[in-house]
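Hi R.,

Here's the chain you asked about this morning:
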Amino acid sequence: MKSIRYSAPGKVILSGEHVVVYGKPALVCAIDKRLSITFSPAQKTEYKDDIFPVLEQSVELFLKSKKEQIKKTGYTYAIESSIPMGRGLGSSAAYCACVSAGLLELFTGVHGVRMMLISVHTKWRNIFIKTPQGRHINFRYGRSYILSKRVRISQNNK
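And the predicted structure, written out as tokens:
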């Protein structure tokens, strides 16, 4: 196995940050702060936190559900980030995008499995952030776009 590296920019919502949760559009743009992760081969996987084994297991379960063959190897990982945490600039979204992309490539040997990446990333975003504002996967590719979240309103007719 060679080293695998993924990087994702932070994001800023230029307009409409609070109205997105009501289904209105927002203007979102990538910023010049990034998070990156590098996976390197090792005899045994070394975890640096408690969440990483859970993320790894969720990728394995996802791949098994898709009947994908899993190539399990030992690895180490290093995370670097210039995105400030807790400032609404997408640090956790960038983390989810990079880790999911890296683990998918590590376990399948295929680079940039976009549809799988979107599925895993979306699942993680819903765990990490109670009200995710959209798919950060678009920022991994450095795009700006209009974000709109559909909200389903149900009436209780009692």
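Residues 134-140, 150-158 have pLDDT under 50 and may be disordered.

Let me know if you need anything else.
M.
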